[in-house]
């Protein structure tokens, strides 16, 4: 039978099988020797009347994230707050780059706490829609935009990611209609959110749709090989790639750069270009942090 790994507890895997039925299984034989099985993996497992379920094979992954370790994400809902904590455009851009690099098919930017600063929420939405990303402004507290967000979800595996304290868990509780995920307020001392998610777990939303509240990211790891293709990971750069005077243009200070010209003409936001330059420099130095 084919199933989806929705939880891993010390080598015991909870599998969502046909029609939503779950089974607790362990890997065996060649599958066990090959290495780790991740939440989000699609597996083939056997279950008989006389023996416990066992995983016999793992299907090829379409993508994988390492922090936290999860696989086969069909949609990433990058969640930020309009205020409390204040959003970092640099952080948003780096997480979008990570999603693009990981080949996640669907990327949605969710701007929570829009009620605290409606003007800035609208500004963020305009900025990233122009960059090529669908955006939804919501207020979990006021329950505004929740229906629109729910309609935009596209699975079967959906990951809610973003900094701690932006309200990912609260949003998911509203979507699920129950208190499934713990949440805490933003620290008044540091101005940052406190991470309440300790492990990766998929929770069934409806039919074959599963959502995951991933722990707040503390670092962003990009391989040095990304350096040559970093410009393509910025969606708003793509219309101008291949139009520069030099084939090896890095879009920094080279003459005849189509990307730089697009920035000067307002076709690419200054903040997006600044993030590109900063990420490029950090990759060169092999230091990727936020």
TrEMBL record:
Spell out the family assignment given in the record's similarity comment. Answer: Belongs to the TRAFAC class YlqF/YawG GTPase family. RsgA subfamily.
- Oligomeric form and interacting partners: Monomer. Associates with 30S ribosomal subunit, binds 16S rRNA.
The record describes how the cofactor is bound as: Binds 1 zinc ion per subunit.
Please state what the protein is called.
Small ribosomal subunit biogenesis GTPase RsgA
GO biological process assignments? ribosomal small subunit biogenesis
Q: Record's NCBIfam families?
A: ribosome small subunit-dependent GTPase A
InterPro entries to which the protein is assigned, alphabetical: G_CP_dom (IPR030378), NA-bd_OB-fold (IPR012340), P-loop_NTPase (IPR027417), Ribosome_biogen_GTPase_RsgA (IPR004881), RsgA_GTPase_dom (IPR010914), RsgA_N (IPR031944)
**Gene Ontology cellular component list:** cytoplasm
- Please spell out the taxonomic lineage of the organism that makes this protein: Bacteria, Bacillati, Bacillota, Negativicutes, Veillonellales
């Amino acid at each position: 039978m084919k199933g989806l790994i929705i939880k891993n507890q010390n080598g015991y895997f909870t599998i969502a099988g046909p029609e939503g039925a779950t089974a607790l299984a362990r890997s065996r034989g060649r599958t066990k020797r090959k290495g780790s099985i991740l939440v989000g993996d699609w597996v083939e497992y056997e279950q008989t009347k006389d023996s416990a379920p066992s995983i016999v094979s793992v299907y090829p992954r379409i993508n994988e994230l390492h922090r936290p370790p999860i696989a086969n994400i069909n949609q990433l809902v990058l969640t930020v707050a309009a205020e409390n904590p204040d959003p970092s455009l640099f952080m948003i851009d780096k997480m979008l780059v990570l999603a693009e690099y990981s080949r996640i098919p669907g990327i949605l930017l969710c701007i929570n706490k829009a009620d605290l600063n409606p003007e800035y929420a609208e500004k963020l939405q305009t900025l990233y829609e122009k960059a090529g990303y669908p955006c939804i402004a919501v207020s979990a507290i006021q329950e505004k935009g929740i229906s629109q967000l729910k309609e935009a979800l596209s699975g079967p595996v959906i990951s809610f990611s973003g900094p701690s304290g932006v309200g990912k868990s609260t949003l998911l509780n509203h979507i699920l209609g129950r208190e499934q995920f713990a949440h805490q307020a933003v620290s008044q001392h540091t101005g940052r959110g406190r991470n309440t998610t300790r492990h990766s777990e998929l929770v069934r939303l409806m039919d074959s749709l599963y959502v995951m509240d991933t722990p707040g990211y503390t670092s962003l790891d990009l391989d040095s090989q990304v350096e040559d293709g970093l410009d393509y990971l910025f969606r708003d750069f793509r219309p101008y790639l291949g139009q520069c005077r030099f084939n090896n243009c890095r879009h920094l200070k080279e003459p005849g750069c189509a990307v730089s010209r697009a920035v000067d003409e307002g076709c690419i936001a200054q903040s997006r270009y600044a993030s590109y330059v900063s990420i490029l420099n950090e990759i060169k130095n092999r230091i990727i942090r936020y």
